[in-house]
Queue: 2 jobs
Job 1
Amino acid sequence: MSSLQPVRGTHDILSQESADRRHIVETGRNVALCYGYGEISTPIFEFTEVFKRTLGDTSDIVTKEMYTFEDRGGHEITLRPEGTAGIARAFISNGLAQNLPLRYFYQGPMFRYERPQKGRLRQFHQIGVELIGVPSPLADVETIALGAQVLRELGVLDRTVLEINTLGDTDSRNAYRAALVDYFSKHLDVLSEDSRTRLQRNPLRILDSKDKGDRALINEAPLFADYLNDVSRAFFDDVLKGLDALGLAYSHNPRLVRGLDYYCHTAFEFTTEALGAQGTVLAGGRYDGLISAMGGAVTPGIGWAAGIERLAMLVDTFPPLARAIAVIPVGDDMQETALKIAHKLRGEGFVIDMDYSGNLSKRLKRANKRHARAAILIGEEEVARDVATLRDLDTGEQNEIPLSALSKHLTPFR
Ligand code: ATP
Ligand code: MG
């Protein structure tokens, strides 16, 4: 029955995958902490306006990918497709303009109605950061360095390339936009329908098109670099200089644009060849126009987001799951004593595995199957002598240990 299947593009995250994701989130959070970032958690749904206004009416996300519905109060609600718009909204709603600069780490689920495939889901998860209120190009350097550090600690940095480009300031973008309109207007017959719409409303967006015909045209399109004014060029140079100073390698990709309307100046992506078509693992840029576009005071910002699923596919080794110690009563009469011992050890922070049925050999078999590290056998005769048997399940070696000093003897098996 289809209603017993998860919705296409979603899946259940079981223990091992949960642990892997936790590792990614914790690595991101810890690195962000070292850079002075606090954490923010905004709702997973917002008024649709929040996304429409910030992502732009012509973005793929707004035109095709949003999960939008009317709630029982008649409000138009959208499940968040990305994190930045909600954080900008929170910045305004909470009157945070007095506290600049602000540094936030976030993580959580995002929702986009896309064609599911490897590395592309309808519910996916991101970690990300935002640095709000710093106009200096060094803010761009900081967030990029932070992203690189997260990738380094996950052991994947050397399988990615940092691609970077500039989208310039408003004046440069206007000049470039005019050049693009001029160019693409001469090739209307080849342009995809989507891109023809974009040509009217946001020609820059055409550069982000995935349509094959469009791609060929895009390769011959005018380059942004030729339309940058001095201010924009200097800004970009400073970002690159900062990256050089930190020894962060990058490749200038003059065709790189971000799919969203609110970006200016720096745009960057850490990409990999290891994941096939879905090669972008971490992507971000500067969004100086976003907060004012939403109705807040003009406030610069920069940030990035990385897909947890794509990161998880790249990471080779995750830290192993903590292995349990099985507490096993020998005979039914010992069940309660075993329960009490397990209770006490759990209270001391040991990972304890317990079963409530079966004879000794069955319980040992299950403990092994669950990959327990050791077992404590609680037998009547031993308990009478205030001891228990500790068996190392990896070596089979076993010893009697005093019940009064259990935790001391178990510590090596933690
Ligand atoms: P793409 O070009 O792959 O569609 P995007 O430009 O839409 O990416 P962003 O909005 O920049 O992606 O999101 C940042 C990151 O989030 C991506 O680099 C990717 O790692 C991840 N991501 C985006 N969409 C999905 C998805 N549908 N499923 C899984 N991960 C995703
Ligand atoms: Mg996309």
Job 2
Amino acid sequence: MTGSGSGHEVRGEPTPEAVLGPLEAAALAAIRGARSSDELAAAAADALGRRSTLAEEQRRLAGRPPAARPIWGRALQEVRARLEGAVAAATALLEEAERQRRLAADRLDLTEVLPAPTAGHLHVVTQTLQVLEDVFLGMGFAIAEGPEVEDDWHNFTALNTPPGHPARDAQDSFYLDVEPAGSMLLRTQTSPVQIRLMESSPLPIYAVVPGRVYRRDTADASHLPSFHQLEGLVVDRGIGFPDLAGTIETFTTAYFGPGVRSRLRPGFFPFTEPSAEFDITCTVCGGEGCRTCRGVGWLEMGGCGLVDPAVFELVGIDPEIWSGFAFGFGLDRLAAMRWGIPDVRLLMENDVRFLAQF
Ligand code: DAH
């Protein structure tokens, strides 16, 4: 007799323990070491599948001596049962670990304190416009609008700026690619709405016209190819320069505050006669003279004048009965002056760090 144990050994035959012991140990290690369900499935197939050593030993059973078959049979069954048990246990462990991972991922931390959502607000140019609209509504003006795509007649010719007029050059225009060439453009100013109002509104007219205008300018600190203007038009009986000067003084004080004054200087615009440019006291130095105002104490704001009788004639209003004034200025520039914004491009860049300051 060799070996020990059950006393059922058959001479010359290896014992089931000697063969199956190491096989079971290796299979158990692989099953328990599996870190994913794929790894586990592979370990289970290696241990129990048709091509496993265990299956091979089962196929060999029939060739063993009859006396050895029952011990081998039982031993094989027991090993198989233990390995199957180990696979089931490992499967349960992996599933539980997987469930914990999913729970952790789905977990809502209700104790986390989120910052209060910040509401947006109107752009500084829109705010500027709204303040001015309120001021003008308070002065009895109506608010009007006109198209951004304009025809040559309204943008230039009816404003006493016929083809070839040098003032057209100063406003490099974006023309539309339509026939006849040069007939339609993106308006270069809000002044064409003056013409539209005079063509279609009953007199008298007291109106302001805000809107976007376009020029073929390269953007720099003080120019944008698209910006905003506010136009004013009054047509009534007996309107003169003092009405114009008073209106400008009133709205500049209302917008900038009582410390800021306005002044008119002679200027030229084709559609006003006489024409003037209007300035306000420098918002940086208060009129002392500084770098912003190049030492003069005043900042240029816009153009104005009494409506040229030639314009009245072009729209069919009798200049013997009616007179009027008009003015126009850039809203972006006005906002920049009010808030000390050094570069108007900031107004277009939509950087919240800039926008949030107003
Ligand atoms: N439209 C002029 C411009 O864009 C500004 C202007 C000047 C408007 C004089 C007016 C005016 O109404 O009377 O440069």
